[in-house]
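Encode chain A's predicted structure.
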Amino acid sequence: MHNPIKTKQIVRNTEAFRGTDWFFTSKGEPRGYIQPESLRELWFHTGTLCNLRCPFCFEGSGPGRMRLECPSEEDVAPFIAEAVELGVEKFSFTGGEPFVNPHMFAILQRALQLRPCLVLTNGTEPLRNRLHQLSALKESEHPLSFRISLDSPDPETHERGRGKGNFKLSLRVMQELLNLGFKVSVATLRDPNGGDFQERFQAVFREHGLPADIPVVAFPDLLPPESRPEVPEITEN
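Encoded structure for chain A:
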């Protein structure tokens, strides 16, 4: 039997770095919350360093940007161990660009001994340059998969934010990952007009010799850091 999630301890830890104002709405009512039942997936942030300068990045990541430093294997080890005690089913990693973090391979080696892992990546040079290392992880106890960021099935739209040539590069890296036996999926921006990109992505995949059934996960625009969008305030009542 796994240890229960200690909600009160989570709240106390949060108070230490955020204060208590966020426990209440602008009208002073207690905010609503969801009582956690189990820890299924634990996400790690690998730092805000990135090789790209995407103007829309909701993390504000880019070259030389150290708002969040790159964690080492030693930094994440106690959290991995605690999550396993809580019954976690999967570890996931995002950045920044995870493969700019010099410790990423060692982190994955440790995590893959215990649970399946997913890495969100832009699928460009930092990942491509480490494919020879990553191939060794196929022998790990648990599987490793990758989710590649493609902002649109249209190359020009994608490269407007991520740089010329990076659309085809990411597709080539996807093919290389598949050739190595890894599973891949695509993260994209949700069409603000409500359109469905799935068929257009399938056409792109076929054109570049990739399986048409690669999963595509669409996300809303999460906005850059310090954005203050108006959102509904959910209360306990």
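The longest strand covers residues 183-189.
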